[in-house]
Specification:
This protein has 309 residues and is mostly helical. Helix content is 52%, strand content 9%. It folds into two domains: 166 residues, MAGE homology domain, winged helix WH1 motif (Arc Repressor Mutant, subunit A); 116 residues, MAGE homology domain, winged helix WH2 motif (Arc Repressor Mutant, subunit A, Orthogonal Bundle), CATH 1.10.10.1210. The longest helix is centred in the first third of the chain and has 49 residues. It is globular.
Length: 309
């Protein structure tokens, strides 16, 4: 029985631990090339999909002799095809298990880092390995990278290296913003990510964004008026009250609108702590993989830079 076949009889984590060496190689390769999807490797070579070549011996010669009659060749090829399909199916199962465990590790690390942020404590690589990564230390670069990206894009929290020799990190709000929304009762999730999203939207609209345009974009992100969000709480209150009271946003009636319509602008605190240029640089950095294009934001940033704001 091959290693792949034995792995099917294990629990998911046991199956993956049995292939720790291969997983380490995959994770190292993934860390070196972030644009490539994670693919589970195995200790044995797996034929490519659609391949009709017979399996090879370690010496590279065909495992089946060529000087046999057609009927035996056909029977052998059918057996080989079945064997290859079984190996491919096993590899896909193991890939699925690996992705499931990897996703769980990323989620666990995000939760661990959020606890560290709320406690205002630095974190070391050793702590992350011991508390979360454990037997998947070879995958640390990938897990840490994915978790850091999630913290930045969802919560607006940046993981910065404080001590390269000791692999120590600190967690700070992005873009120099001092707001995280953790004050008050039951405020357990940072809201800086939501604030950044709104500031970006306003900048994209040329400095003032209609309320309906804001909600249209938020709905695409599955953030809805009147529906509690797992990370942002009640978004209507956060948008029209909390961030306005914190002076990050201005919420006003559109002049001469009848019936009344409302729009959002950057508040004085946002203008004091960050800028259109910084926001533009941030957006380009976090969305480089998607290659978004923000013409209005670019124009606003260039205008701000020219006018010396």
């Amino acid at each position: 029985m091959s290693l792949e076949q034995r792995s099917l009889h294990y629990k998911p984590e046991e199956a993956l631990e049995a292939q720790e060496e291969a997983l380490g190689l995959v994770c190292v390769q993934a860390a070196a090339s972030s644009s490539s999807p994670l693919v589970l490797g195995t200790l044995e070579e797996v034929p490519t999909a659609g391949s009709t070549d017979p399996p090879q011996t370690p010496q590279g010669a065909s495992a089946f002799p060529t000087t046999i009659n057609f009927s035996r060749q056909r029977q052998t090829n059918e057996s080989s095809s079945s064997y290859e399909e079984e190996r491919l199916s096993t590899s896909r199962i193991l890939e699925f298990l690996f992705r499931a465990v990897l996703t769980k590790k990323v989620d666990n690390l995000v939760h661990f880092l959020l606890l560290k942020y709320r406690a205002r404590e630095p974190v070391t690589k050793a702590e992350m390995l011991e508390s979360v990564i454990k037997n998947y230390k070879h995958c640390f670069p990938v897990i840490f990278g994915k978790a850091s990206e999630s913290l930045k894009m969802i919560f607006g929290i940046d993981v910065k290296e404080a001590d390269p020799t000791g692999h120590s990190y600190v967690l700070v709000t992005c873009l120099g913003l001092s707001y995280d929304g953790l004050l008050g009762d039951n405020q357990i999730m940072p809201k800086t990510g939501f604030l950044i999203i709104i500031l970006v939207m306003i900048a994209m609209e040329g400095g003032h964004a209609p309320e309906e345009a804001i909600w249209e974009e938020l709905n695409v992100m599955e953030v809805y008026d009147g529906r509690e969000h797992s990370a942002y709480g009640e978004p209507k209150k956060l948008l029209t009250q909390d961030l306005v009271q914190e002076k990050y946003l201005e919420y006003r009636q559109v002049p001469y609108s009848d019936p009344a319509r409302y729009e959002f602008l950057w508040g004085p605190r946002a203008l004091a702590e960050t800028s259109y240029v910084k926001v533009l640089e941030y957006v380009i950095k976090v969305s480089a993989r998607v290659r978004f294009f923000f013409p209005s934001l670019r124009e606003a940033a260039l205008r701000e830079d020219k006018e010396g704001f």
